Amino acid sequence: MKKLESSLKNMLLVLTGVTIISVALLAFVNELTKGPIEKANAKALSDAVSMVVPGFDNDPIADKKMQAVNGVEYAIYPATKQGKYIGAAVESTSMGFGGELKVLVGFDAEGNILDYSLLAHAETPGLGSKAADWFKEGHKGSIKGLNPGKAPLVVTKDGGQVDAITASTITSRAFLNAVNAAYAAFIGGASADATSGATRKKNVEHTDSTAVAADSVSVK
Length: 220
Hints:
Elements: H1 2-52, E1 65-69, E2 72-81, E3 84-95, E4 100-108, E5 113-120, H2 131-134, H3 169-188, H4 190-194, H5 197-205, H6 207-215
Antiparallel strand pairs: 1-2, 2-3, 3-4, 4-5
């Protein structure tokens, strides 16, 4: 009996020791990789901003602002060239078929869509993941040049003007909801702070459109 108790005690001690060592190793590895991962993420974001709002000469990421719309915070990266506001990139998320879908949308100073980058998603490979290209210029569902302030982006199946991804309407709706929400944040934040008085006046005139764009996020 004593031998059995001794064996159990030894096993527990060994397991405890292994656990402590494993946790310590994981913490050490995490600390080693934390810096490189953060740098990689920062570079990926910087590259995405450069793609969706080209031509700026400031540092949009350093000038980042947060804007609340319907209780949700959005990151806005204002872009300027020779001191003149040329647009902004806005991060936005929405729930797709498989999980959260995160996009970065670029707008010019007038609120027209320049480009976008699909930063992350959990959609089905081969279907929902097509959102990375489907809505880009030259593709069937292109949203380039559209202005959500004039009319919220909606798939044709729901009476809108944007072709949904084939066999993936839910993902398409989620994507467009994210873009509409990004526009609402854009109008409510970056453009009002970074542009001239004339543009501020334009933003006031778009108040109703902003409300429509923000409400469209709830479309199912």
